[in-house]
Amino acid sequence: QQQVKQSPQSLIVQKGGIPIINCAYENTAFDYFPWYQQFPGKGPALLIAIRPDVSEKKEGRFTISFNKSAKQFSLHIMDSQPGDSATYFCAASIVSGTASKLTFGTGTRLQVTL
Amino acid sequence: DTGVSQNPRHKITKRGQNVTFRCDPISEHNRLYWYRQTLGQGPEFLTYFQNEAQLEKSRLLSDRFSAERPKGSFSTLEIQRTEQGDSAMYLCASSLLGAEAFFGQGTRLTVV
């Protein structure tokens, strides 16, 4: 059972555009929602994360929007650049207690063209 | 470099052989995780340690897989009698309790 669904599978935007990647989760016990960026041959790198007590978080050009009632969250990349071309993964976990493993989405391959 | 270190970066092995991977976490991190990532998919949780105790194992971790973290420092992941289906990127991550997890570069395993 896939607990975190991610869409779209791939995305092409022009430089300066605002790609949006969406995720939906099922387990209401999740209380931590990070986004990771991964380049080919590298491990995932943490971009930004949010807890469910806020609806939006911004760090530089990256923004997470969170809708607790809909069990959805999304990543927006402002003023996208060719260097942002990578695969992006959303994830979710339960931070409290012992079960803090991450459940990942299937990834979105982003290409930013000139 | 004070990040998570994994060795080797690449491993090619023949079917049926045993392989062992090593992960050195960020030094003060008490939690260490192993994930497996196949092409075009997100990482899948395998197991994690808090200090030297292995607290959870995924059903993906068959009896051919074993992980250890002696003394709560580095960790090893061993796969016995490798199969072609074991070909994947094996990722290690570490964190402090309740904090963000940082990943290593991974070990790419190819079973031929």
In short:
Chain A is mainly beta and 114 residues long. Chain A has no helices and 11 strands. In chain B, 0% of the residues lie in helices and 50% in strands.
Helix content of chain B: under 10%
Largest interface: A-B, 24 and 28 residues
State Rg of chain B.
13 Å
Sketch the topology of chain A as an H/E string, one letter per element. Answer: EEEEEEEEEEE
* Unreliable stretches of chain A: none
* End-to-end distance of chain B: 33 Å
Radius of gyration of chain A: 14 Å
The tally of helices of chain B reads: 0
Overall mean pLDDT of chain A stands at 93
Secondary structure category of chain B: mainly beta
State the helical fraction of chain A.
Answer: under 10%
Q: Work out the strand percent of chain B.
A: over 45%
- Main β sheet profile of chain A: 6 strands, mixed
Shape of chain A: globular
**How far is the first residue's CA from the last residue's CA of chain A?**
39 Å
Structural class of chain A: mainly beta
The total of beta strands of chain A comes to 11
- Taking pLDDT < 50 over at least 5 consecutive residues as the criterion, the unreliable ranges of chain B are none
List keywords for this structure.
heterodimer; A: 114 residues; B: 112 residues; mainly beta; seven-stranded mixed β-sheet; 0% helix; 50% strand
Tell me what you see in this structure.
The complex is a heterodimer of chains A (114) and B (112). Chain A is mainly β. Helix content of chain A is 0%, strand content 51%. Chain A contains no helices and 11 strands. Chain A is globular. In chain B, strands 2, 4, 5, 6, 9, 10 and 11 form a 7-stranded mixed β-sheet that branches. A 4-stranded antiparallel β-sheet of chain B has the order 1-3-8-7, with no helix packed on it. In chain B, a hairpin with a 6-residue loop joins strand 9 and strand 10. Chain B is globular. In chain B, 35% of the residues are buried. The model of chain B has no long low-confidence stretch (mean pLDDT 93). The interface between A and B is medium-sized, with 24 and 28 residues.
